[in-house]
Amino acid sequence: MATAHPIDVHVGRRLRQRRRLLGLTQEKLAQAVDIRFQQIQKYESGSNRISASRLWSLAKALDVSISYFFEGVNGAEPQLDFDLRAEAGFAEAPAEGLLDEKETMDLVRYYYRLEEEPRRRLLDLARALSEV
């Protein structure tokens, strides 16, 4: 079996991240683009390439531009796990695939549902707890 191309893996990860951020199941997304959920699984793993027309349908269903799926690709090779260290102040890299975790995406989704003031207070709380 051939190894998935890094671009296909990257696009699949972006698909999974956006789907989870919106709180959609693979089944719901598959229904929206009139395919089976198993195909969504294959797209998300990078084992199946996404055609241009299907990518357009997925982008429309997920309310993003097609370029969204390629964000983070630098030059010829994609950057599969971007480096959050400098921005977040980590001394070491966060866990690989951090944004692939359902719990992480749930946290982000619920965080952005909050009004500005509770969001700021929650961020302050997380910052204080991380210093313990």
Structure notes:
By secondary structure, the chain is mainly alpha-helical. It folds into two domains: 1-79, 434 Repressor (Amino-terminal Domain); 98-132. The chain has helices at residues 6-21, 26-32, 37-45, 52-62, 85-88, 102-113, 116-130; strands at 73-74, 77-78. The chain has a two-stranded antiparallel ribbon with strand order 1-2. A hairpin with a 2-residue loop joins strand 1 and strand 2. Helix 1 crosses helix 3.
Distance between the termini: 47 Å
Q: What's the total count of β strands? A: 2
Number of distinct helices: 7
Q: What is the CA-atom radius of gyration, in angstroms?
A: 17 Å
As residue ranges, the low-confidence spans are: 76-93
| Shape call | elongated
CATH architecture of the largest domain: Orthogonal Bundle
Structural class estimated from helices and strands = mainly alpha
Task: State the CATH superfamily name of the largest domain.
Answer: lambda repressor-like DNA-binding domains
Reading off the top of the CATH hierarchy, the class of the largest domain is best stated as Mainly Alpha
The share of residues in extended strands comes to: under 5%
Average of the residue pLDDT scores: 82
The CATH topology label of the largest domain is 434 Repressor (Amino-terminal Domain)
Query: If strands are numbered along the chain, what order do they take across the biggest sheet?
Result: 1-2
H-E string: HHHHEEHHH
In total, the number of domains comes to: 2
Oligomeric state as shown: single chain
